[in-house]
UniProtKB/TrEMBL annotation:
Residues 12-161 form the Uracil-DNA glycosylase-like domain. This is DNA-deoxyinosine glycosylase. The keyword Hydrolase applies. Pfam families: UDG (PF03167). CDD domains: UDG-F6_HDG. Keywords: Glycosidase, Hydrolase. GO terms for molecular function: DNA-deoxyinosine glycosylase activity. It comes from Helicobacter turcicus. The keyword Glycoprotein does not apply. NCBIfam families: hypoxanDNAglyco. It comes from the Bacteria. InterPro entries: Hypoxan-DNA_Glyclase, Uracil-DNA_glycosylase-like, Uracil-DNA_glycosylase-like_sf. SMART domains: UDG, UreE_C.
């Protein structure tokens, strides 16, 4: 039986000209596509970390966008088009991610004040370094907030977020 790739397009970046930090994920999960926004899996730790650290409640897509822009945080994924398949089933695991198009990070940086890129997990970091080696010096690899990361340590996130606050 042949595997049929289902190519999907990721989300548009969240940013404005005042953005100073880019948080870069890999590609939306199935649950994120269903929620129609970044980190839509309720077990993903991303929004929980931000809520706890900044002592805010982020309950809607609109409140999340406002929060990000208020704190000069841009949010995007390194893969703008791709497939996440395991056999004939859709998967949310980064190890199954097949990028078909990489996001134009240079274009985003030219429109903003971004000087730091925080990669959410190794896959995002490795793809970023592969396609943007000239920007590797401004990128940091943080532990993936995915529920699949059983050894998650929030301390590196807290250290980097303290630079924003």
């Amino acid at each position: 039986m042949a595997v049929v790739l289902q190519i999907k397009t990721g989300f548009e970046p969240i940013f404005d000209k005042e953005s100073k930090i880019l948080i870069l994920g890999s590609f939306p999960s199935r649950m994120s596509f269903e929620a129609e926004f970044y980190y839509g899996n309720p077990r993903n730790r991303f929004w929980k970390i931000l809520q706890e650290f900044f002592n805010v409640e982020l309950t809607s897509v609109e409140s999340k966008k406002i929060f990000l822009l208020h704190h000069h945080i841009a949010l995007w994924d390194i893969v703008s088009r791709g497939s996440n398949m395991q056999g004939n089933r859709e998967s949310s695991m980064d190890k199954n991610l097949l990028p078909t198009e990489i996001s134009p990070i240079d274009t985003l940086l030219a429109k903003t004040k971004i000087k730091t890129i925080l990669c959410n997990g190794k896959k995002a970091y490795l793809l970023f370094c592969e396609y943007y080696p000239h920007l590797k010096n401004i990128a940091k690899c943080l532990p993936s907030t995915s529920p699949a990361n059983v050894k998650f340590d929030s301390q590196p996130w807290k250290i980097e977020l303290s630079q924003i606050k």
